[in-house]
Amino acid sequence: MYSAILATALTGLTIVNAQAPGAPLPVPGVTGRLGDAEIVDDNVPGVTYTAFLPNRTTSNIRGFVAGTSNANGTGVNFALSVSGFPDESLGPFMYHIHDQPVPANGNCTATLAHLDPYIRGEVPPCDPTHPETCQSGDLSGKHGNVSGDPFNTAYLDLYLSTHQGPASFFGNRSIVFHTRNATRLTCANFTLTSGNGTGANNGNTPAGNGTVTGSNPVPSPFTGGAAVTFVSAGAIVAGLAALML
């Protein structure tokens, strides 16, 4: 019986080790502690939040990232237009929605971890063939890294919200661009640039009319995102050994 328990534990250790930092490839079946991300289907049409990358002496990257709620209320259409990246040897360059906004001093580190309401963590890497298992804010993981300079792309993300309330709401958060080794190059806050971002679509809400209404309260720090707890192999084996005594 104990040998069977030990075998099961060692199988579990294989899974834990596969999720350790530096894992080179996605691990099939990995999801958040709260399950897979749910498709957002109640966005008010015509709501746009845009992050304009600022002029910085420390970075030449300029451009914008805009997210507009889909016309049918399901998901968000993102459009990116950015340029000015450093030497390509520092890439591939990645970008994510981070949990906190950029403070007035422009410190990108203060944006904390990726938006991760389902508590998935950053490792193993996102599997783009199963975007529902990825961190909600991992845009480049789900839709591809920056692949040129200038870089322009557009896509639909089904797992983000443009109305306040759900943890998947990104309108009061920030976008951060990184090098391959996770060095933060530049960042910017999303701001409401079109539509009404204060309510959900109840089926009777007309599309946005181009006016901007509502405000974006600063979110409370979310400590679950991009955090993974590892249990050492020695601790597990030692515990099993104690059971066998």
Low-confidence stretches: 1-24, 203-214, 220-245
Fraction in beta strands? 15-25%
* Element-by-element helix/strand order: HEEEEHEEEEH
Rounded to an integer in angstroms, the radius of gyration calculated over CA atoms is 20 Å
Number of helices: 3
State the end-to-end CA separation: 13 Å
What is the share of helical residues? 10-25%
Mean pLDDT: 79
Using the alpha-carbon principal axes, give the shape. globular
Q: Main sheet?
A: 8 strands, mixed
Q: Structural class of the secondary elements? A: alpha+beta
- β-strand number: 8
Can you describe this structure?
With 245 residues, the protein is an alpha+beta fold. The chain has three helices and eight strands. Strands 1, 2, 3, 4, 5, 6, 7 and 8 form an eight-stranded mixed β-sheet that branches. Helix 1 runs antiparallel to helix 3. The longest helix has 17 residues, at 2-18. Mean pLDDT is 79; it is low at 1-24, 203-214 and 220-245.
Task: Write a brief caption for the model.
The chain is of the alpha+beta class. It has three helices and eight strands.
Label this structure with key terms.
245 residues, alpha+beta, eight-stranded mixed sheet, globular, disordered N terminus, disordered C terminus
Helix and strand arrangement:
Blueprint: H1 2-18, E1 48-53, E2 62-69, E3 76-83, E4 94-98, H2 139-143, E5 151-157, E6 174-178, E7 184-196, E8 212-213, H3 233-244
Parallel strand pairs: 7-8
Antiparallel strand pairs: 1-2, 1-7, 2-3, 3-5, 4-6, 6-7
